[in-house]
Write a structure and sequence with these properties.
Elements: H1 3-9, E1 29-35, E2 47-53, E3 59-64, H2 70-85, E4 90-93, H3 97-100, H4 102-111, E5 114-117
Parallel strand pairs: 1-4, 4-5
Antiparallel strand pairs: 1-2, 2-3
InterPro entries: Integrase_cat-core, RNaseH-like_sf, RNaseH_sf
GO molecular function, one term: RNA-directed DNA polymerase activity
Keywords: Nucleotidyltransferase, RNA-directed DNA polymerase, Transferase
């Protein structure tokens, strides 16, 4: 067997790549992800929450703790994104359990924001 064939047999099948819509206005379409497992800062932060406007590529970097509860992350989101830039039309994120939680989905549904999960095995759809 060739290396390529063996490698292909041991990988999960990937989904089709779906191109996100092109944003029409700044901060209407955002992406978000966490950079985790960082060395703890003097304040105990070990994670950076990265929120990117898909149109302008403006970015918010927010230090958090990996163990911060969703209600705290929701307050940070409302302060850093919604109060400064308005309510986004859509958010693209990976399949992190925090973004897939009922709490987060309910908050975004109440705000009228569409949640889109990036295509499995295609992180480039995160924007």
């Amino acid at each position: 067997m060739t290396c390529a064939k063996v490698k292909a047999e041991h990988q999960k099948p990937s989904g089709l790549l779906v191109q996100p819509e092109i944003p029409e206005w700044k901060w209407d379409n955002i992406t978000m992800d966490f950079v985790t497992k960082l060395p703890k800062s003097s304040q105990g932060y070990d994670t950076i929450w990265v929120i990117v406007d898909r149109l302008t590529k403006s970015t918010i970097f927010t230090p958090i703790r990996e163990t911060d509860p969703m209600d705290k992350l929701a307050r940070i989101y409302l302060k850093e994104v919604v109060t400064r830039h308005g309510i986004p039309v859509s958010i693209i994120s990976d399949r992190d359990p925090r973004f897939a939680s009922n709490f987060w989905r309910s908050l975004q549904n109440t705000l009228g924001t569409r949640l889109d999960m990036s295509t499995a095995y295609h992180p480039e759809t995160d924007g």
